[in-house]
Design a protein that fits this description.
The chain folds into 4 domains: 2-42, no CATH class; 83-158, no CATH class; 166-329, Leucine-rich repeat, LRR (right-handed beta-alpha superhelix) (Alpha-Beta Horseshoe); 356-485, Alpha-Beta Horseshoe (Leucine-rich repeat, LRR (right-handed beta-alpha superhelix)). Helices cover 31% and strands 20% of the residues. It contains 15 helices and 21 strands. It has helices spanning 47-55, 59-66, 70-76, 108-118, 133-149, 183-195, 214-225, 265-272, 296-305, 345-355, 381-390, 405-414, 442-451, 455-466, 475-478; strands at residues 2-5, 22-26, 31-36, 84-87, 93-98, 101-106, 124-127, 160-164, 168-171, 175-178, 201-205, 231-235, 255-258, 279-284, 310-316, 331-337, 361-364, 396-399, 403-404, 420-423, 428-429. It has a 12-stranded parallel sheet with strand order 4-7-8-11-12-13-14-15-16-17-18-20, with no helix packed on it. The protein is globular. Residues 39-85 form the F-box domain. This is F-box domain-containing protein.
């Protein structure tokens, strides 16, 4: 009896692709006696690792991988890899030729086959922006019919539904055109919410509804998910100013993300009756219209009812609008995820006056597309130092504005609670242009002027103050920063 590794003799019943196996060859019987699985190799990866890999692949790629070996074929039928269903332009579609050329049409058979075979394992449905509204309408029709056909709910594990409407399109002659949801498409979406049950996370972006269409959609959500919904995001839900009173009827809601023009004093007071609400996020983008903030008197009442409530103010996208400050609100975070935002001294003073005892996170992400002043009085140095000095609870600070090395040292010195500091290296000027502070000793000011002359010395000094290794970030790394809330 002989043992062959990798180059075993071919035998009837042997897989030619199975070259990593150790084969025991019986010369007398002229056949394979046993095949041992290899200790390592792609075919013997742990099931949990293979499931994670398969989950990242598209449907067609999963099928191709299932043809590789028996182990991968078994993983193909694992419920864990079918937890997420992502709908794009090409999902469940096929090409058909007409007089205008080829077009993508939705295959009803593929959708029905998916729902009947693995629909019960689906936990999350994500609908990405698509301009083929007809295919999306047909998909919603089939999904709604599937959910209401059976006596028992056929998708018991479905907890997350995220829908982003493609509201902006570009016409060659006219240019960008922004349209909202309506008509039969909105009716079908409303019907779908009427048959979905026990959702825990619901995200609706850029629907831009008319004020008359808003109540019908939210009433269906309240009907089936008022007690189960934990996370609710309504970004640019309406075109105009329209208070969304229905969000106050979500009794189990813990986090609400909403645009400011959909919240009034009455809506906030209704939310105050929800004792489970932990965080309220006001988000603005280029589709958000101008509106008035909630009055400070209302915020005072809400803070007395819900002392645990945290409020986050956020501006994102390609917009030039400034963050809408909510006076006397329990704001713990202010983030600007737009390249056009800049720090102004009056705005910084308003932030200090209103949120000096609650602010924990402040910053600007993305690379700027605005002109940065070089003179000390026109830069944001004094505003950032005042923010850190008068808001003692700040733990995270993201700086992309042009500042000097001396300002960076003062921020690290004054920030008693500062734990994470992110600074763009290309925005830091090697300069000491601060006058001597009144409460500083002369030796301390001399140390500031000396250390500010070298980037390396500044990084070493900041590392010592933060008690961890620290360095300024190049633009490539700063551009990739994301805040995990």
């Amino acid at each position: 009896m002989e043992i062959y590794e990798d180059e075993a003799r071919p035998s009837k019943g042997m897989d030619k692709n199975d070259q990593d196996n150790i084969v025991v060859w019986n010369e007398s019987k002229n056949e394979v006696c046993s095949i041992y699985r290899p200790v390592n190799g792609w075919a013997t990866l742990p099931d949990i690792v293979l499931e994670d890999v398969f989950e990242l692949l598209e449907f067609r790629e999963r099928y191709y991988c299932s043809r590789v070996c028996k182990n991968w074929y078994i993983i193909f039928f694992s419920p864990r890899i079918w937890r997420t269903l992502e709908i794009t332009e090409t999902t469940f579609t096929y090409l058909k030729h007409n007089i205008f050329g080829y077009e993508l049409l939705l295959s009803h058979e593929r959708v029905q086959l998916y729902l009947t075979r693995v629909g019960e394992y689906t936990k999350r449905i994500v609908v990405h922006p698509t301009f083929n509204f007809h295919n999306l309408y047909e998909f919603y029709t089939i999904l709604a019919a599937f959910l209401e056909f059976f006596e028992e709910y056929p998708m018991p594990h479905l907890e997350i539904f995220e829908f982003t409407f493609a509201c902006e399109s570009r016409i060659p002659v006219v240019g960008p055109v922004v349209l909202g949801t309506g008509g039969q498409f909105l009716e079908k979406l409303t019907h779908l919410f009427g048959v979905m049950k026990n959702l825990k996370r619901l995200v609706l972006k850029y629907l831009l509804l008319e004020s008359t269409d808003v109540p019908g959609v939210l009433e269906q959500v309240v009907k089936n998910c008022s007690t189960s919904l934990l996370y609710f995001e309504l970004r640019d839900f309406s075109k105009e100013k329209c208070p969304l009173f229905q969000v106050g009827m979500m009794h189990g809601l813990r986090k609400l993300v909403i645009t400011p023009h959909n919240v009034t004093d009455d809506v906030l007071l209704m939310l105050a009756n929800n004792t489970s609400l932990e965080e309220l996020v006001f988000i603005q983008d280029k589709y958000t219209i101008e509106s008035e903030p909630v009055s400070s008197k209302t915020w005072k009442v809400v803070r007395s009812i819900m002392p645990w409530l945290k409020v986050r103010l956020q501006v994102s996208g390609l917009t030039r609008s400034k963050v809408l400050l909510q006076e006397r609100a329990p704001v713990w975070c202010i983030m600007h995820e737009t390249p056009y935002a800049s720090i102004s001294t009056p705005e910084m003073h308003r932030i200090i006056d209103n949120y000096r005892n609650t602010l924990r996170v402040y910053g600007h992400l993305m690379l700027p597309r605005t002109h940065g002043a070089r003179t000390f009085h026109c830069r944001a140095d004094s505003g950032l130092v005042a923010l850190v000095r008068h808001c003692p609870h700040i733990t995270k600070l993201y700086i992309r504005e042009r500042i000097s090395t001396a300002t960076l040292l003062i921020i690290a010195t004054e920030g008693k609670s500062l734990k994470e500091l992110y600074v763009r290296r290309n925005a830091v000027i090697l300069k000491s242009d601060w006058p001597k502070p009144i409460h500083w000793e002369q030796w301390r000011y001399d140390w500031l002027c000396k250390t500010a002359r070298s980037y390396q010395m500044v990084e070493q000094a900041v590392s010592a103050m933060l008690k961890q290794k620290w360095s300024m970030l190049p633009d490539a790394q700063f551009k990739q920063l994301r805040v995990n809330f």
